[in-house]
Amino acid sequence: MTTNLPMKLSHLPNSLPLDGAVRIELVEGVPIFRASSLVQGRIEALLIKQKESALTSEEEKELDEYEELDDYLSFMNRMIRNSSLIQNFKF
Question: Alpha-carbon distance 26 to 31, whole Å?
């Protein structure tokens, strides 16, 4: 996992669908961003292929971009959860 996450993503994977790529779930009243099942399926397909044979350079780039997006969503989810905790903390 990247330790110095950018505040902006430089690009998205070309295979990322324009609609329905990310879903929002409520976890204990806090919105959490998650990759859609379609995106998760593509990532799993790339990971399976990576274990069985070498990925093309384009596929490696795509997998790296998905990892960057996952890191970013995780970062945003932590920020949202932390903000929620601070707002709910009573002095």
Answer: 5
Express as a percent the part of the chain with pLDDT over 70.
88
Instruction: Enumerate the domain spans of the chain.
Output: 22-88
Residue 20 near residue 39 (C-beta atoms within 8 A): no
Is the pLDDT assigned to residue 22 strictly greater than 60? Answer: yes
H helical segments located in the chain: 37-52, 57-88
Looking at the whole model, is its pTM more than 0.70? yes
Provide the sign of the torsion angle of the four alpha carbons 54, 45, 48, 23, taken in this order. Answer: positive
> Measured between alpha carbons, how far is 23 from 33 in angstroms, rounded to an integer?
6
Residue type, 70: D
Classify 49 in phi/psi space as left (phi over 0), alpha (psi -120 to 50) or beta.
Answer: alpha
